[in-house]
Structures are given as C-alpha cells and as structure tokens.
Amino acid sequence: MHTSSQCFFKWLAAVATSTLLACAPLRQNIPPGVVPAGEPWSPEKQLIGRQAVLETLKAHPMTYEARYVLRAQSVLDRIFSAINSTEQWHVFVVENSEWNAFCAPGNNMVIYTGLLNSMSDNDELAAVLGHELSHDLARHGDDESLNLLTALTAELAKSAAERTYQKTGDKDRAMNEAMGITLIGNGLFIAPYSQSQELEADRIGLFLMADAGFNPEKAPNVWMRKARKNSSSALDSLLGTHPPSAERAAALLQLLPLAKPRFLNYSKKGKTITLTAHSREIARDNRALDLTRASDLLVTQGIQYFEAAQYDSARQLYERALQADPHNAYALNGLGTVAMASGNPSRSQQYFERMLKLAPYSAAAHYNLACTHSVLGQNTQALKEIQQAIAINPQLKSKALDDGDLVGIRMDPRFDQALAKQRGGATFVINSLE
Ligand SMILES: [Zn+2]
Fold first, then answer.
1. Residue 192 C-alpha to ligand 1 middle, in angstroms?
2. In this predicted model, what pLDDT tens digit does every residue of 221-280 receive, in sequence order?
3. What's the gap in Å between 124 CA and the centre of ligand 1?
4. Sheet with 108-112, side-by-side order of all strands
C-alpha cells in the first residue's frame, strides 16, 4: 500500500520532541469485509468527545428542520441497524454550509446541513456517514501509535496551561485553555487521520453501507467529488493525510465485487432478497426519505404540521405528496398517523395496509399496523406485525416497550417472546444532549 505518512513523520520530527516518535506497534489492518463493532471508549476520551460536541454546538446551532433531521434519521435508521452492537448513539444535525460530518468519542456524530444539501441521493449520504462512522468503529481516534498529533498537542496544551496558571493563578482558566487546544489538536475538528486510516474507513464504510442496503457503487464518486471540491486544503497538503482521490476510488472499485453481493442480499425480515429480480421494488420500498424529491419534501412539511398537532394541514400536504407520487409510502404513512391521531384507527389501518403493499419491507408500515391492530383489540395480528417491524429495524424494540398504542398487547405473554427473539443493532437519538 502506498504510504506517504513518511512526510508526516518528518514534519512532526521537525516540530516535536523525539519522544513522540517512539515506535509503537501499528494495529493490524481490519480485513476487507469486516465491520468492527467498536470497543468502549475510555471515560477520558468520552469527556473529550462530549466537549467537542458542545464546542461545535456553540459555533453551529442544531437545526430542527424536518427536511434535514428526517433525512439524516431515515438513512441512519438503516446504518445503525446494520452495526453489530447495542450501543446508544447521539446524533447532532447542525447548521453549517460546509460539506462535513464527524464522529467524536463516546458515540457522538455531528452532521452539517451543508453535507445533507450536497448529497444528490441517500446512497451518497450513506457513503459519507458510513465512512465517518467507520473511523469511530475502528477506533482511529484512539490509536495513539498513529495519532501523533494528539501527543504533540497534549504537550502544547500542557505548557500553555502551565503558563496561564503561573501568570494568573487561575486553575479553571488554565484547564479550559488546555482543553481548547487539546480539542483542536485532537483531530475532532481537523481530523488528522493518516492515509491508511482514511483508506481503512473507506473500506469499512463501503461494507457498512452495503449491509444497510445502500448501493456501494456510489461511494467512489463521492470521494472524487469531495477531492475536487477541496483540492487545495493547506492542511491536507501539509500533513499529507488524505490519500489521492484516484487511489481512494481505485481501492473502492477493487472491493465492489465483494461489497455488491451484500447490498444485493440486503435482507429484511431475515430472508434474503435477490435484487436482480426485485431491484425496482427494493429501491422504492426500502428507500429513505429523499430531500431531492418534491413528493418527499411535501411529506416532511406535513410532518412538521403533524408535530404541531395541525392535523388538517398535515393531511392536505400528505395528500398532495401522494398526488405527486402515488407510490410514496411515506405519504400513506402520514395519512395513517393523522387518522390515528384523529381517533379513527380503522381508517388509519386502511392507509397502513396500502402502505405495506407499496413497501412490504418498511419497518414503519409493520409497526404502525401493529398499533392499529392493538388499539382495535386484534392482538394476534398486532403481535405478528410488531415482530416483523423489529426484525427489520431493531431500534423499534425500545419504542414498542413504552408506546401507548401497544398497551393492549404488552400484557400478552406472547409480546415478550416476540421481542426476545430479536437481534440487537445500535440505537440513536437526534439533537438531544441527555
Ligand atoms: Zn475520513
């Protein structure tokens, strides 16, 4: 593998003391096809991660705009479900026009609205989010042998804090200053991952997106575009941290024959679906909300009205979305939720049944159908639907445990059995600091 980390070493050697260059053994590369689950972060690193998030939120506030939050959510629903872990993540969608997203230690992910705006479809978005998540799952920021910049900035931070403390005698101020320098140097903002780490994150991300049912063929293009966009990053050229885009694309293209079958076999409900026969259906049924579609935009506006309890306005928008695209399962989902909220579970059930016909692998369709069955006292059907919903999206398990609409079946002994069978999958919350 091409490594120009040599120049990174030389650059550091010129700046840092020789102790920083002690030859720690390099961790073995994660083999192609493996998506690591991620080891727990140390409490110190978790603290740094949380601090990085708070610093970011000070500069770039969270956005609650449905078109951003829902799009991120619908893509992450599938990505997190594909990780072999039951960890809880915190996702923050922030207002910033830059093409960026990053993970911070302690299961934090920050996504800029600029990234959501520049991804032309959800496969591309999944490629970027999968890559960022992969840095974290591979614990790249935790790898002291590679992250020499961390050691360097720790030194800088220490001496700055000592200076401040000597001058002012203010311990808190000295600590804050040290923390600020450490954060910047820690790569949480400038991401000084090595070239081999970047290539490894590309590799893991490719399989992660495929496992989540996103087309891995879209990944090489995204990185070529990114490279064209900021070809003149001074930091990149100084540190030599980013592999040349042609090399990245070539490495990904080489792995496509391995990743593609996992996308094709993207399995929902535990059974294998061969995409050759059903590719169109899958693309439609399992697609995530897409900002670039007029029909989906109407749905996201409808959801905003729904959340403000303005059901009539919400219903009108969902109906317009359905007119714009009669196959939009999300519009039917919206109409079903409006009917449910207006106290009409039978009508609601009709919408969800139509939705399920269009989107037989949609976890939301099964889940919402379970709710209507439960409210209508149809326990056996409700249990069957809830089991299917959770098989498709394990994150719905915790929701099912305290959803008022499912009170009817939670007392049923078959409910625990239905839930016990399900596998894990990471969970996440968006824009919540708790
Ligand atoms: Zn990266």
1. 9
2. 888 887 776 554 444 444 445 667 788 889 999 999 999 988 887 754 443 333 333 333
3. 15
4. 101-104, 108-112, 88-94, 427-430
